[in-house]
Amino acid sequence: MGHKVILAVCSLNQWAMDFEGNLQRILESIRQAKAMGARYRLGPELEISGYGCADHFLEPDTFLHSWEVLAEIISHQMSQDILLDIGMPVMHKNVGYNCRVFILNKRILLIRPKIFLCDDGNYREPRWFTAWSRLQQVEEHYLPGIIRAITDQSTVPFGDAVISTRDTCLGSEICEELWSPASRHIEMSLDGVEIITNGSGSHHQLRKGYVRRDLIKSATMKAGGIYCFANLLGCDGERVYYDGNSCVYLNGELLAQGPQFSLQDVVVIGSHVDLEDVRSYRNQIKSRCMQASHQTKFPRVNVDFTLGPEDPAVPVMMEGAVWELLTPQQEIS
Q1: Quick one: pLDDT at residue 331?
Q2: Closest CA to 298 of 104, 99, 110
Q3: Helix (H) or strand (E) holding 173
């Protein structure tokens, strides 16, 4: 019968410091994801504040307004009964981090900080953020009052951990971590994480889309598993353009892909995936199984929730996709 899950990845045309507009686009993406039947929604990097806030990331108000937007998302009726993976800046112990925040039914499950920052080309992330260096470790993060009033939580786990639902295990990378030699998806995959997610702010560069595709394809072909990639869309107030092209891969095969360029502010794509395909694929690669048998374990946040459809008897259609990328002439036109 298999174990089907329904996942949604989003490309959003977010703008730096446009907290109200960013909130509305996030809520619209959640609405579309739920309309597809998705039980998990992945958004791009720093989607609440916008990626290009530059030195505004050094101002406490940027963190405060991000929490205010998150409070609106957590309390909104649209945000219930779906696992939300939200990108935002978080200050932890007086240190600014680029984070993913996992939310489910008015509870924060985990705050996962970025481990490898990008500091080349157009990127200067270490100017504004600090990389989390305590691999496979978590500590308590004390929540602000506006969040405590909604979630009834004082602290939540903060660090390099993964989410275990009743039917699978999900772990996060953030943008640059896919590109780095010591990518986190390797160790997570060896520790049994079946769904790797990546909220990204990857700008357009001629033929860069092919590189992103090859990195994701290689990651899932070598280690097995599902890889969900969500990228920003539009200018975000910077001098670069983010070209979307969000996608979902399974064991080296493309399942779903969003457009490389779009005039829509919100682009959501859904994918139906059978977890048994991951388990069967991985078990056949015996060198991988040997490495997995002695992999150091990640801290797990256990969640009483499933990513599969509420009624497992309902058939879920699974279809592959053909990778579509513009020619160089089309990209520069």
Answers
A1: 72
A2: 110
A3: strand 169-174
